[in-house]
Design brief:
The complex is a heterodimer of chains A (452) and B (172). Chain A has 452 residues and is of the alpha+beta class. Chain A has six helices and 21 strands. A six-stranded antiparallel beta barrel of chain A has the order 1-2-5-4-3-12. In chain A, strands 6-7-8-11-10-9 form a six-stranded antiparallel β-barrel. In chain A, strands 16-17-21 form a three-stranded mixed beta sheet, with no helix packed on it. The chains are: A alpha+beta (452), B mainly alpha (172).
Chain lengths: 452, 172
């Protein structure tokens, strides 16, 4: 036996070394299903290489800054003029877009949408790559000491870059979206078709899981869908470059990433994501369409059938509180106010028989309108966020919805509050399709607590 | 492009100083991680592989060759995103093969070096893909055109690099 091992000594050692590595690999693969901690040897290797990278990047940046900021300033005046013009143009665009955004926020709030926003972006510099043609990942100069954590989204102004795969004390490894092991929930901007964005072995990016009978055109923008719980919804991902029939019943959609993944220098790490209610922008202009909607004559709604109890406005989250007759409508001590960006919510008094008060078959209900993050309660003092203008006790739009419908048109009343002073004091105006039925309430109205 | 068979007595075995033994692989790993950030096309090269082949062929000792390959490959794995050991196994095989070949063939001339480097690049890729797909369950797709193109690019770079590294050789 010894002679055999001696004769094939080299081969035996080769097999032994390979066996050990295979064993180590098998252990890692098995453990990868669990939450994998960064291994110490990886930290050593990264600590060995990244300080040099970091130093070189600093030297490179210093040289570049010196050249661009002190010596090479040719054409700066012309560029400055051009940029100023561009700013003016963008300001005009911003005005238009803020109108649309405000409307979108109102609609979102109507439906009690939660929206994810980027809480804390952390700027980081790319200092290196994994150094492999097959693995597309980069190193950034921020780590756990700076608040970077696993699975945090990494983005640029252009679009998404990837997610944090490994965190070291002062550096992090970011897996880019064109790596073949990455996956990003994405959707097409126009058609809202959702799919999974994956990298390919040659570094391209494809959108998978879109059925072949769907219409997808080159040039269409791809956005993050938020389904992966890593990237906030709506971030630019890329542009469709080619669409062809793929395997099975799916399309093969090639996407050009919005961020230039091969020339990344600075990135942003989303260290904190916040989920908040959609917020109605205050201080926005009152739209002519809103005023018209308030002044339109109302169409009587079908009364609810439940005689025993009455149901009032549905909360933004869809929960509805039913209050038995006899309970005070003012059970809630004061209206709850959201931090909705309303600098100074207006407080208004409603008359007892405001259009927002509904009597339904012997009961009465009071709508609570989450307007701009402010609960609006009929027959009580309530805050209307409006645009800082006091509402005049008139909520012309329908406030009381069908039970559980969650469509109380409360957001509309926010608009009303904003522009109510321009309207007649009591005039049941209704926005289709569900107009109010406004009658005086002979019995104590039911109330609803706004969870917000 | 002659590849001559040489007897054991004709083969010259070289050794390297410790700074070169440690510094050159580390420099290769550093450049491999740093340069593609500025020049993305550079990622087609595999400097650690070229260094592994060079040391293995110069030392002509299979055991030192396989350990050199294993060490370089494992460090390369540690810098990457995938499990540690894929490059390690591939470079262990290459280190062993290159040193075994170096012990039998004269691989001092440019033509031989070109062919040997191309061959070992493909062997390295084959082992890497086999391990990655078979053990780690990664979905890698092999492209012959890309593989041969990358192999040729590495072979030409390798020939130049080997002549540069020849300066550090010390006769035993």
């Amino acid at each position: 036996m010894e002679s055999v091992l001696g004769r094939y000594r080299n081969l035996t050692i080769l097999v032994g070394v390979l066996f050990l590595q295979v064993l180590g690999l098998a252990v890692q693969v098995k453990r990868s299903a669990d939450a994998e901690n960064t291994r110490l040897i990886r930290i050593w290797a990264v600590d060995l290489i990244t300080p040099f990278e970091r130093g070189l990047v600093r030297v490179q940046n210093a040289g570049s800054d010196l050249w661009h900021n002190y010596f090479f300033l040719r054409g700066v005046r012309a560029e400055n003029r051009q940029l100023k013009q561009q700013i003016e143009q963008m300001r005009l665009d911003q005005v238009r877009m803020s109108e649309d955004a405000a409307q979108a926020h109102r609609l979102q709030q109507l439906l009690a949408f939660k929206e994810q926003v980027i809480g804390k972006p952390l700027a980081a510099q790319v200092i290196g790559s994994s150094g492999s043609d097959l693995s597309r990942s980069i190193y950034i100069d921020k780590g756990s000491n700076d608040g970077v954590g696993l699975d945090m989204a990494v983005i640029t102004a252009g679009g998404i870059v990837g997610k944090v795969l490994r965190v070291y004390p002062s550096t992090s490894l970011v897996l880019m979206i064109n790596d073949q092991t990455s996956g990003v929930g994405a959707m097409l901007e126009k058609s809202r078709l959702q799919g999974v964005l994956r990298g390919t072995p040659n570094g391209a990016v494809v959108l998978e899981r879109v059925m072949s009978d769907e219409q997808v055109t080159p040039g269409e923008t791809v956005l993050s869908s938020g389904g992966d719980q890593i990237f906030p919804k709506g971030l630019p991902v890329g542009t469709v470059t080619k669409v062809s029939p793929g395997r099975e019943m799916f399309l093969n959609i090639q996407v050009k990433p919005a961020a230039d993944l091969s020339r990344l220098e600075e990135v942003l790490v989303v260290t904190e994501k916040q989920e908040q209610n959609a917020v109605v922008e205050n201080g926005g202009r009152v739209r002519a369409a809103d005023i018209l909607a308030q002044r339109l004559p109302s169409v009587p709604d079908k009364p609810a059938t439940d005689a025993a109890t009455t149901v009032t406005g549905t909360s933004p989250s869809g929960s509805t509180k039913v209050v038995a007759p006899g309970q005070s409508p003012n059970a809630s001590p004061k209206p709850q106010t959201l931090a909705a960006g309303s600098p100074k919510p207006a407080t208004v008094e409603h008359a007892a028989a405001t259009p927002s008060t509904v009597k339904v078959a012997g009961g009465a209900s009071t709508g609570t309108a989450p307007v701009g993050g402010t609960a609006v309660r009929a027959s009580s003092t309530h805050a209307a966020p409006g645009s800082g203008q006091p509402a005049t006790g008139q909520v012309p739009k329908k406030v009381v919805p069908k039970a559980g419908a969650g469509d109380s048109a409360n957001g509309s009343s926010g608009d009303t509050a904003a522009s109510g002073s321009a309207n007649p004091p009591v005039k049941p105006a209704t926005a289709p399709p569900k107009p109010p039925v406004s009658q005086p309430a002979p019995q104590p109205p039911a109330t609803e607590d706004n969870p917000h | 492009m002659p590849i001559t068979y040489t007897s054991g007595e004709q083969i010259e075995v070289y050794r390297f100083s410790i700074p070169v033994t440690v510094g050159v692989p580390l420099l290769a790993l550093f450049l491999q991680a740093f340069v593609p950030r500025r020049f993305p096309f550079f990622s087609i090269f595999d400097l650690p592989l070229l260094v592994t082949i060079f040391f293995a062929m110069a030392r002509r000792n299979p055991i030192s060759g396989l350990f050199t390959g294993a060490a370089i490959g494992l460090v390369q794995d540690m810098l990457g995103a995938y499990p540690i050991g894929i490059y390690g196994i591939a470079k262990t095989v290459v280190g062993y093969g290159a040193s075994s070949l170096g012990a039998k063939l004269d691989v001092e001339n440019a033509g031989a070096r070109l062919l040997v480097t191309l061959g070992f690049y493909l062997v390295h890729a084959a082992v890497y893909f086999t391990v990655a797909r078979g053990m780690v369950n990664m979905t890698l797709n092999w492209s012959w055109s890309r593989g041969i193109l990358a192999g040729l690019a590495n072979a030409f770079l390798g020939v130049g690099l080997y002549f540069l590294l020849d300066k550090f050789k010390q006769r035993t």
